Amino acid sequence: MPLALLALAIGAFGIGTTEFVIMGLLPEVAGDFQVSIPTAGFLVTGYALGVVLGAPLMTLLGTRVTRKRMLMLLMGLFIVGNVVSALAPVFGVMLAGRVIASLAHGAFFGIGSVVAADLVAPQKKAGAIAMMFTGLTVANVVGVPLGTLIGQTAGWRTTFLLVAVLGVVGLLGVAKLVPDQPRPEGVRIRHELAAFRNVQVLLAMAMTVLGFGGVFAAITYITPMMTGIAGYSASSVTWLLVLFGLGMVAGNLIGGRFADRHLMPMLYVSLGALSVVLGLFTVTAHNKIAAAVTIVLIGALGFATVPPLQKRVLDQAAGAPTLASAVNIGAFNLGNALSAWLGGLVIAAGLGYTAPNWVGAALAASALVLAVFSSLLERRETGKGRIVAGSSPEPASVVAARH
Question: HSE of 43 in the Cβ direction (CA atoms, 13 Å)?
Fold first, then answer.
């Protein structure tokens, strides 16, 4: 694998750290700005919405520059956002810093996926995408716990300054290691937008929303579930999240490896198994060991869908894939927000802290149904294409008479 993938992975590590580390530092941030925890939670919501909106916006703005230069500009935006967050005098400025940083998120992963795929042979594209996303998964194992620990001991502002330093390292890595690929000739905004007329692109994005949404339906409420149902102490939740992160790392690499060979079967297996495991989590959540094992499996099966789904979008939008790739990253965050909301609804309805697991199972099962439908539709279209390509321009009677 090219060294350029290492630079992309470093950038992904920094972005993944800043996205999730705030969840462990909300009490400290809320106390410093003298706001409530729910108000501080807007730092999470604002970031997620910034990713959804920023992915297409920043990608469209970057259509007139090379992908390498756009990646560098995005890392610069990411650095600025984290510095603003670290030095924020009031909560509103902190929120603005989070939104600034989030604008780089979707476009970086979207453009980075295209660059990573172009760096390798066609049969290794999903593996290259997975290598870049390894930075994001490792962030959940190393960056988030370490950033939380630093924030709790040295202050949360120190954490965001260190994340900004990671951004500088990522920027330098992109500048040094990523080749300066020329901007595709003839590709304009209208070409990028045309990809969304492809039903297969839209189906892949819907699978992204529902499939990964299933993961976050459960993980969003893991703290009350594990402390109130499984019997873990609050301090143990950090290590459970590390287990979740390890599962993500493994699933990402496995998904990338097999998606290059059997993309749709990989989606069938991962989405089907994810639906089953999420359903079982309503039972295993009552036992410490079984719950821990289930959390690892949810992380692995959930992230095993990421490389194949991202590659599916790239394949179906092959003529102008950059915008579609970036929007698909926003789809992950849209799924996170949707599933967290649905999970909150069933808890508020009095169905208990394990109820979001059923929501997640239903979402993953819905994604599996879409995957099967997408494959059947593709086969039907391919079959029609073969019939048209092999048809004779003459009537059958004329052909028969000739013979």
Answer: 33
Per-residue pLDDT tens digits for 168-186: 999 999 999 988 876 655 5
Above 50 in pLDDT, residue 394? no
- CA–chain centroid gap for 287, Å, is 29
Rg (CA), the chain: 22
pTM for this predicted structure = 0.77
Residues 224-245: tens digit of each pLDDT: 888 889 888 877 877 888 898 8
Give the CA distances from residue 105 to residues 13, 76, 136, 201, in Å, rounded to whole numbers and listed in that order.
Answer: 11, 12, 11, 21
Are 266 and 126 contacting, i.e. CB atoms less than 8 angstroms apart? no
Q: Which of 128, 275, 261, 295 is nearest to 213 (CA)?
A: 275
Sorted by where each starts, the structural domains of the chain and their CATH numbers stand as 1-183 (1.20.1250.20), 185-384 (1.20.1250.20)
**Nearest alpha-carbon partner for 214 in 306, 311, 289, 142:** 306
